[in-house]
Amino acid sequence: RLDEKHAKVEVLATGLPASPGAAVGQIVFTADEAVEKAGHDRKTPVILVRAETTPEDIHGMEVAIGILTSRGGMTSHAAVVTRGMGKCCVAGAGDIEVVEKAREMRVKGQVFKEGDWISLDGTTGRVMKGKLNTVAAKPDDPELMKLMSWAEPFRKLGVRANADIPRDAIQARAFGAEGIGLCRTEHMFFGEDRIKHMRAMILAGNEKDRRAALKKLLPMQRSDFIGVFRAMDGFPVTIRTLDPPLHEFLPRREDLMVEVAVLEATKPRSPKLKELKALLRRVEELHEFNPMLGHRGCRLGITYPEITEMQARAIFEAAVTVAKEGVKVFPEVMIPLTATLKEMANQGAIVRRVAEEVFKEKETKVDYLVGTMIELPRAALVADEIAKEAEFFSFGTNDLTQTTFGFSRDDINKVLPTYLEEGILKQDPFAALDREGVGQLIRIATERGRKTRPGLKVGICGEHGGEPSSVEFCHHVGLNYVSCSPFRVLTARLAAAQAAASDKLKVEGGRTK
Tell me: the pLDDT tens digits for 332-348? Predict the structure, then answer.
């Protein structure tokens, strides 16, 4: 946290408290600048300032001690990623104008350039001028540990973590996570040694070339899964197949257009120009007006079944490898964005076929489940049908909130302050679960799914999994677990225990009467 006792505090802007904590550092405007300025030893503290972040900014976000964006909400890319990393983030600070080309941040008539110091309070959403002092947190505080030891015996709801790499899985276990509720495979493709193969797959004009590129990605994915399985020895790991639209793995359309224009004017015969034009053509082909409701999730796996095949093979080859080492492994393969039984059946059949192929080749079997991520109202309403193929449900409450309300989670901050002020909404539905609408869909889907498949395992893996009132709701609806960012696991455990203890007190109070 920030130490403001004897400091002169000038608040420049207030955004959303997207990820708690404090950060004091020098401004940088691009991910590459963050890496360069922070250095290999990371001795120079930097704060990455962007209009909004994208998956291409991951390398800069990793070295920055804090993130500030002028756009985006509580479930924006910056918010979700920083919560997973345990870094401070203020998102949607609308009073701030980020001018990337000029390398400037403008607010309240003041101009801040690269290297200027600012301080962020991720708990309140405040952005402050200058260099304030900080007070380090104590995650192993004896009093906190004592409180957790009192609370744990009451808890009935399981708590897992959203983790994509072994380091995060290890951190999650240290906080008491009982498995991984969401492992996002797409984050594994953004490494420098992988993105070129991913782009080769996307640019491929036929299945043969796509499979050739996927073959190069297979050992990389397998290695990642091996690390995660080892870290979660004895606990289930839910792995989501590829979810985002393919354009997210390619350079931005606008950036490519600028590069092409510059080369046409300066080096019209450059071999790179031909390469960039081909890339731009593919980006244009993949361009969608509403990509979050477009060619993504299970739709990708149905259009390009070889992608699902490769990922399933990587999962089961990794599972068999660690099982032979004595690791207790429980993979759960999750198909995203299903809306119909046939979508689930299509992708489930591929996963199960590949699993049997791997077990036969390796002469070893492991237990596994194939389920789905419920993110669309239709899926919730026909959950009894989908449960014929899905062996578990996990509610992706970020997108389920988005598709139920019709709000864009990245743009809601344009209307949210007014909605809260006028009392139209009591709270940000992306921060705390909307019980009246989204919550009812969760209740309906859980009840209908379990009518078809008694004992169906059900959880949530959206950011609501670490928010106390949302955890309480999940307890009362009868979910098996919640899953949240590693650094919110303690909060979720405590909230789950409080919900159970409250139930017990009500029952005992009723008996007394």
Answer: 999 999 999 999 999 99
In angstroms, the first-to-last Cα distance of the chain is 45
Residues of the chain with pLDDT under 70: 6, 40-41, 137-140, 507-513
Residue 77 annotated to the active site: yes
Report helix angle 192-203 to 271-286, nearest 10: 70
The pLDDT tens digits of the residues spanning 179-217 come to 999 999 987 887 777 888 998 899 888 999 999 999 999
Strand-strand pairing, 104-107 and 97-99: antiparallel
Do 331 and 445 fall into the same domain? yes
Residue finishing a domain among 83, 112, 134 = 134
Same domain flag for 347 and 276: no
Query: Are the beta carbons of 128 and 9 closer than 8 angstroms?
Result: yes
Whether 40 is catalytic is no
**Are residues 179 and 273 part of one domain?**
no
Which DSSP string corresponds to 133-186? EE----TT-HHHHHHHHHHGGG--SEEEEE-SSHHHHHHHHHTT--SEEEEEGG
Domain range for 369 is 142-245+289-512
- Indicate the SS3 state at residue 367: coil
Query: What are the beta bridge partners of residue 238?
Result: 332
The continuous run of DSSP H or E covering 226 comes out as helix 207-231
Give per-residue burial for 264-288: e unless 16+ CB within 10 Å, then b.
Answer: eeeeeeeeebeebeebbebbeebee
Number of folded domains in the chain? 3
Instruction: Give 312's Cβ-side CA count (13 Å radius).
Output: 25
Look up the pTM and report it: 0.86
Amino acid identity for residue 139 in this structure: P
* R_g of the chain, CA atoms, integer Å: 23
Q: Are residues 368 and 447 located together in one domain of the fold?
A: yes
**CATH code for the domain of 130:** 3.50.30.10
Q: Are residues 196 and 278 in the same domain?
A: no
Catalytic residue among 89, 183, 298, 461: 461
In terms of domains, do 69 and 184 share one?
no
- Tell me the C-alpha to C-alpha distance, in Å, between residue 385 and each of 12, 380, 389, 431, 480: 52, 10, 8, 30, 20
What is the DSSP-derived secondary structure letter of residue 340?
Answer: S
455: left (phi over 0), alpha (psi -120 to 50) or beta: left
Query: How far, in Å, CA of 178 to CA of 150, rounded?
Result: 18
Which residue is listed with tokens 């979910």?
479
Q: 81 with 197, same domain?
A: no
User: In terms of domains, do 281 and 357 share one?
Assistant: no
Structural element, H or E, at residue 263: helix 253-266
The Cα-based distances of 403 to 79, 143, 337 in angstroms read 19, 41, 11
74 touches 122 (CB < 8 A): no
- 427 secondary structure, DSSP code: S
From 98, 113, 134, the end of a domain falls on: 134
